[in-house]
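Page header: ASSEMBLY MODEL / four components / 1039 residues total.
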Amino acid sequence: MYLVNYIKEVLSALRSLLIGMRRTLFYFTHHKEIITEQYPDNRATLKLADRFKGEVVMPHNENNEHRCTGCTACELACPNGTIKVITKFDITPEGKKKKAIDKLVYHLELCTMCNLCVYACPSDAIKMAQTFEHSVFDRNQLTKVLNFPDSKIMDGVE
Amino acid sequence: MSNEELKAKLSELIPTATFEEGGEWTTLLIEPKALMEVMPLMRNDVAFNMDYLFCLTAVDWKTHITMVYHLTSTTYRHNLVIKSKLDKSKPEIETVCLIWRSAEFLEREVYELFGVNFINHPDLRLLILPDGWEGKNPLLKDFDDPINMIKL
Amino acid sequence: MVEEIGTTQDGDLIINVGPQHPATHGVLHLVITLHGETIKKVEPHLGYIHRSIEKMCESLTYRQFIYVTSRMDYLSSHINNHGCALLVERAMQIEVPARAQVIRVLMDELTRIASHELWWGAMAMDLGAFTPFFHAFREREMINEIMEDTCGARLTMNYMVPGGVQEDIHPDFVRKVKEFIALFKRKVDEYDEMVTDNIIFRKRMENVGVISAADAISYGLSGPSLRGSGVSCDVRKYYPYDVYNQVQFEEIIETGGDSLARYMVRIREMKQSISIIEQLLDGIPDGDFCAKTKAVIKLPKGEFYQRVETARGELGIYVVSEGATTPYRIKFRSPGFSNLSALDHMARGSKIGDLVAMMGTLDLVIPDIDR
Amino acid sequence: MWSISKIASLVHEWLSNTFSATWVTVFEMVIAGVLVISLFAVLGLILVMMERKVSAWIQIRLGPNRVGPKGMFQSAADTVKLLVKEGMTPNGADKLLFNVAPFLAIVVSMLLMAPLAFAKDFTLWDINIGVLYVSAISSVSVISILMAGWASNNKYSLMGAMRSGAQIVSYELSAGLSIMAIVVLTGSLNFNDIILSQADGWWIFKGHLPIWIAFIVFLIAVTAETNRAPFDLAEAESELTAGFHTEYSGMKFALFFLAEYVNVFIVCAIGATLFLGGWMPFHIGHWDGFNHIMDFIPSSLWFFGKTFFLIFLIMWFRWSFPRLRIDQLLNLEWKYLLPISMVNILLVTAMAILKWHF
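Prediction written out in full:
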């Protein structure tokens, strides 16, 4: 009886190994199952998810206008001090002083892409861009000014 | 047992028991000296059977340090919070790691982050902080991190 | 304790496993005392990735501190975020819209599958089988893409906010999840063929790292590790949150207490998660995905404790509030920390190869242990 | 038709006509040495490439595909990288043993190449005790591993070396016994005699079940002897980081690596010779017409084809199975393989005496 059990044990062990080998042979012979993405080569066809959080950008329209009012909601929402809003006072045509942004400084090196600034923005002035290749040779290049030079606030955004 | 039943049973067993109101679970306040009377009772009494210590921590209240023990029972599923106020200048309390083994690591963590000394702990050494750490215990309120990037 | 490394007087070897070691998957540092091949003692040394999240959270507002928790147990970041959001909602008595609740549970379960998927591959790799790792990543990649579509991130989502979720689900979400489920159901049998039924694997797992139910409770194990010892402890069953009380699922319990039992719990849990997703997927209610909340959240004075079932076990969030915008003290009861404390008890007397199996089935994630 | 043996005899003829007998011997030895070394290098490159491609396809990956056409020169690029890397000797290491160990490993695998029959009438050293020689020399390789492990002054290395010692010494037994099965059937220890005895069919077809059992035991045992997964306990990267070669770097590491692959080639060549007829083409009994067609395929192709098939089998094992634990490894040998092959050799002997085989 011991011998029978012994042989049974050996055979069932061999069987389990062969089942595993059959599965790996299947993948060895079926190259269609390969899922490798050849990243730098497929840059042209690479499509990132449209909500992918790559970096914070401020969209401008063709007249070089943005929607940022300088309310600093993003700066307050940010957990890492990534965003610094530097405000100035514009003189409106009616002669009134109006708060506007001078610079919206964004430290990409501190950013954790948590989306809280975009979530907090009341005027949809900033959004997440789908870029992800952020490596540069100088760390200073990671500190960005989000509003373009000489840009203005869009009409009708309060 | 519901919170009320727990409370009734507790005040029956421990006449000196005081309770803290407002929390979602029964919160029992005890003296550090009474810890070793209450804790084995909680663990071994058939009615309580608090066999699962799921959270052990401390809170620095500047004037004193409060130890907080969260207990539950895997048979009755009732929860109990036990608190004990320690002296800020010399925080000391008996260990509970002979009752619940999970306390061994949790107490080591509290020891290094708050400086609470656990009497009779079998292996009270630094767990997270690097060997030879000198200076304040990091989770105390007067600990100031010289390079805190996120403090605005 | 580098000075102690060497040989003891009995001729036992003391060796470092980690912080740089192929089996620790991170910066876990174990100092083990070996008598030949037999383990006499395992001593964890932690803190290599300690960021003091608890201290950091004391200076972050109740909206901000959620993102940090993604970095604790990075494999179940949704569930960590969910726990924080639940705590704030309960303290503030915010009513969460039904749609948000369903979305959150869907995300939780997808995260759980993705986490178990990674665990399965990494554990098989620890035991010397490399192939399962890549096969597991194929399925995990699909989940990651689903997450990327909806949350915009693959690992540290920060998708749940107090009151609901940040954005509505992506229009493709339901279709992609259905595709994933169809593929997963086909592939999960291959897992059994390659690993579970393999005789070598069975022999490596059976009666290895046995921990009795009483010891497991005493050591504060939770999640699949505790359920592998035959103790029912699923937070989703006992303290249901969001829509968990409206779905039918089985709490997986195995009574072996050994590595194989813990392994089987996780494998079967993946199938349960699939069933939860299937129940919810077709009936995602319409409506808001986030409740209206105040811009500045101030928790009332008091203490709050919220637990959620992460892929590794019970995550507890203990907040002491003084009525300010930031917590006065916050404590994360992480499942990995308690699970690790039982490792010494389990490992004594077993072979060094078994240590790998035990670490694998406890599913240690080092940032979760260190916080 | 050109065959390797023809080229060899042409070279020999030319040398004998040009130089005196002593110089002919010297030149021939030098040529043989250079050929073995270059075969080594080429084998190393091909096998590493093959392993990477096999593993990649099993693991639903593409594998190396950057250097050269379809990544063919990847292993050559790796070799260049390893050559220019610094070879460090750790503090506290036994410098002599540490530096000698990789060379010993490579010398052992070179020696093993001598009695192999690569093609018809083409053997470096046709000795009448070829099988015995191979079993004797192959056990020397454990010494290089023990040396490396001990001299590294590293506990992981030491444990890896000790494991490897226990493992190779044990598995030598069942490998030897399964080789004995063939020796019993042919009555010769000479590789060429063994191959010639398979002219009417390979032993795996002629020998019924006992030879199949011997073949399977042989495969398992040599996988263990060459420290390949699932028996790679000597390096077991999840337990011992890299086992006995933890401290090695640069070319000294590369030599261990090369020796591993060449050893795999050699044991597969021996397996192919013993069980699959070596360079002998696929012959079926007395079907002379069929056998004649088969003879048109060069004998060296047959040899390398069979050897690479066995190498693929061993690679296939590696990428399919988890690793055993040390006590299970020894259990497998002493409780399963050894008794089975002992009973098996009795069966084979009975078969040989009663002439039951074809």
